[in-house]
Amino acid sequence: MSATSRSPSPVGPSEAWRSAMPPGFRWPDGVRAAACFSFDIDAESAILIDHPEASEHLDVMSHQAYGPRTGVPRLLRLLDRQGVRATFFVPGYTAERWPEMVRSVRDAGHEIAHHGYLHEGSRGADPDEEERHLLRGLEALDAVAGVRPVGYRAPNWELSYALPALLAKHGFRYDSGLMDADHPYRLAVSAEPGAASVVELPAHWSLDDWEPYNYLPGITGSGVIASPADVIARWTLELDALVDEGGLFMLTNHPFVSGRASRAAGLERLVTHAKSVDGLWVATCGEVAAWVETLDLPPTVHTPPILPDAP
Ligand SMILES: [Zn+2]
Prior knowledge:
Helix content: 40-55%
Largest sheet: 5 strands, parallel
Structural class: alpha/beta
Strand content: 5-15%
Shape: globular
Bound molecules: zinc ion
């Protein structure tokens, strides 16, 4: 859309954003868009799932332990200063290894959600295997923190076609990680008429701190580590654009990554900015999902594309 066609709008600036809304979607009265600050406390799990030998490498383990030891406490202080409640996605293994840290997140009033057991990806997993990971993660969060999460985020955002049905079966209310929308939607577990559904809270790699910041030699990253000034500027552009679209800004940070001093300071500036945007609802993922559940949205059905015959 050109600048010329945006202004002046025949319906006025306060109404223009409504045209971008999907059918049946709206925010609560007085709200024009939403922002969730989410944190995946991967700690060691995201490394050990693919590199079990790294359990013997103190340097790598200490890099991951920065999250529970230093990043989470700093981020909790930040959120407390800002009066913002966030959602923390916690692998079961992280909960078992760092129980006091997970309880500190719970006790600070934040939402705790499911993030696998040992950060297992879904690619190549069968549904029975996926269900075992789901249940083991639930058991760990219950045993450590007495929490029964309603939200799920697939490790690596690898959500399989089978997993939504497992989420509905085990009482989850939402998933966060598909990438086909700017707004939350109803995710049907199958194409069957009347099939169960969960709420989907879409995310995107561009709003994840892993790619710009993270570097572990031989494991992840290119060695080019972005400046927080650049990253926060990019995230702010997306926040402001999604507010114009009436969408959901879903930021995904990892405490071992964005808990570092200048990154956390940049994040706090972004939180301050988000709170200053008129009509922007800063909420937990669970709060947004609960709102979306009140809407009569047509379910979205995802089916795998049929591959063409070989030439
Ligand atoms: Zn993760």
